[in-house]
Amino acid sequence: LGRINLMKSITLLLTVLGLTLQLTSQTSPRFEDYPVGIYRGTIHKPKWIRRVADDEWRDELGKLVETPEINFAGKYFVSVHSCGTGCRYYSITDLSSGRELNLLKDFGAAEPQPTTREGYPYVTELVTRANSKLIVAQFRIDSPRGEECRERAFILEGEKTTPLTNTRRSCTNY
Fold first, then answer.
1. pLDDT band at 166, cuts 50/70/90?
2. pLDDT tens sequence across 127-145
């Protein structure tokens, strides 16, 4: 009887573990599940960017930014810009044409900082890949318990971002 109970307990544990892993994988979309081809033509850099040294690029406020290269959905350059302490905003440029899109305004942070429903301030970090139309927003939250991270995945459809998931209470390490 003891051996049967042990076997039942092990079976139950494996079933719960399997379901947990299955649910976890369903709530974390993978970049490779949303592939796109990468544009190979002439790169049209953003109008707001200027090169000040061999490997140094600045935006219109004179703030350091990444090198303008395709880093999202096959032809886009997503860049984070600093506008002071605790202030940031994102831009997205179609490098095949140089055209700016106004898709990422909801991910910025200014004064006053955005807050969660619980009233805790947060900063958003966007995770992208050049060969995928998936974009992951990770919300870095300053709570009384210390820094927390929440995450939500979006997909680029035409010229809009559409949520794929609800906000999760943990973040994936990319």
1. very high
2. 999 999 999 999 999 998 9
